UniProtKB/TrEMBL annotation:
Lineage: Eukaryota, Viridiplantae, Streptophyta, Embryophyta, Tracheophyta
Similarity section: Belongs to the glycosyl hydrolase 17 family.
GO BP: carbohydrate metabolic process; defense response
Domain X8: 368-453
Catalytic activity: Hydrolysis of (1->3)-beta-D-glucosidic linkages in (1->3)-beta-D-glucans
Protein name in UniProt: glucan endo-1,3-beta-D-glucosidase
EC class (word): hydrolase
Keyword Hydrolase listed: yes
Amino acid sequence: MSLFCTLVLSLFILLSLINYNVHGVGINYGTIGNNLPSPKKVAQLLQSTIFDKVKIYDTNPEILEAFSNTGIDLIVAVENSQIKNLSENQSNADKWFVTRILPFIPSTSIVTIAVGNEYLTDDQLLDHNALFQAMQNLHSVLLSRGLNRKIKVSTPHSMAVLASSFPPSSSTFATTLLPVMTSIVALLSDTNSPFMINAYPYFAYRDNPSMVNLEYALLGNTSGVRDPKGYVYTNMLDAQIDAIRSAINALGFGNQTIQILVSESGWPSRGDTSATNENARTYNTRLIQRAQLNKGTPMSPKDRIDVFVFALFNENKKQGGVSERNFGIFNGDGTKVYDVDLSCEFCSNEKFGGKIESSLLSSRGPSVWCVAKPHADEKVIQAVLDFCCGPGGVDCREIHENGDCFQPDKVYAHTSYAMNAYYQMHGRNYWNCDFKGTGLVTFSDPSYGKCFYSHQ
Ligand SMILES: *[C@@H]1O[C@H](CO)[C@@H](O)[C@H](O)[C@H]1NC(C)=O
Ligand SMILES: *[C@@H]1O[C@H](CO)[C@@H](O)[C@H](O)[C@H]1NC(C)=O
Ligand SMILES: *[C@@H]1O[C@H](CO)[C@@H](O)[C@H](O)[C@H]1NC(C)=O
Ligand SMILES: *[C@@H]1O[C@H](CO)[C@@H](O)[C@H](O)[C@H]1NC(C)=O
């Protein structure tokens, strides 16, 4: 085979990889620390990583502002202390929405409102029904404003909402929570919203190290724990997710698909004997790998599970034991606590940097360009344009008024021009044409008239 054919063939293999949909991963961004970087810096830090969804614990306006036009989706939260107020009537919920959320959309992509955090298992807060009422009021607000498809309402639970979690197939919610859980799950089902669970194999292991296999807790591929119904669990997180699934089914929602979302999971690097850098690195690495796959659990193999890693930073002002302050992947100064690969094969060049670049897509390869996908989300496209012409360093004069590529004056056309320039500038690695899934490598020259798309 000639060198040229080899190159073309390799390129086709790369192109087929591009079409393979790698899912992004979520991260929890808590801010209970006095040494954390500014939200603006955090948004920049995250843009070069696999994390494309961020969950916060309030509606901090500085954070909402910092994540505008980043292409990163946000889950924001109603603090537990606000739930009573929002539960009282829709007009309270509307006020909350108008002051906390409305000013930031759509430039900040807020996709979900998490109402409270582990509210039902917080000993201080006994009015369970207030949670449901607050969720329903917020949903009504979204509905009345025509935003109910864009923004979902849910609430993260701890595993303590279960009466028992083993075996997974016979788990049920605690008896006292059955009425409120039935209302909540019905609302989630009606509104096509996810059931959120904070699932920590770490705590199960820490509290019972002699009974639990560490590899099983660490998401290892162990020989497995067999459920009486025949499901085989190779790791504890899958068993925890299916325990929740069974409890939902036991409420009578078995014939509906309610998506389960892991709103928190992680492993601390300090605080007790199993909280080591090595275990934290192992768990979070495997969790991130798992989150990228199109993979469900033994009970429902086809239902992909979205995961939000806990947490972005070590938070030095958090209450509780030492481990509570050491769940972070990053220190306050932005350095990693331990080595974990957060690079995104399709959006940064850290992972394969150099290797493929020099051997396959060197300047002697066939001509290729990068353009915007025709049906890509316009908001993301706009964010990509802003990035390329700003921090991305592309010379965008040709798409400004009087430039040769100003016409057609369409955001897709301008973004294609900028994407291509960025892609060519960075050595034409296929991951430099990802742009959060909105870029496309093409063999046909997009140049027209006097508008010239550079290539090498
Ligand atoms: C909503 O509830 C609050 C009490 O929290 C009350 O002050 C207010 O008048 C109520 N508004 C409506 C429209 O009922
Ligand atoms: C309830 O929340 C609304 C909007 O956030 C606020 O204006 C009002 O003062 C709150 N009421 C109480 C009793 O806290
Ligand atoms: C887990 O182990 C089993 C049996 O050893 C193997 O068949 C399977 O492919 C492994 N799965 C993963 C994800 O490594
Ligand atoms: C699910 O089951 C309920 C009660 O068993 C029934 O009323 C409902 O129609 C079923 N829904 C679907 C989509 O099958």
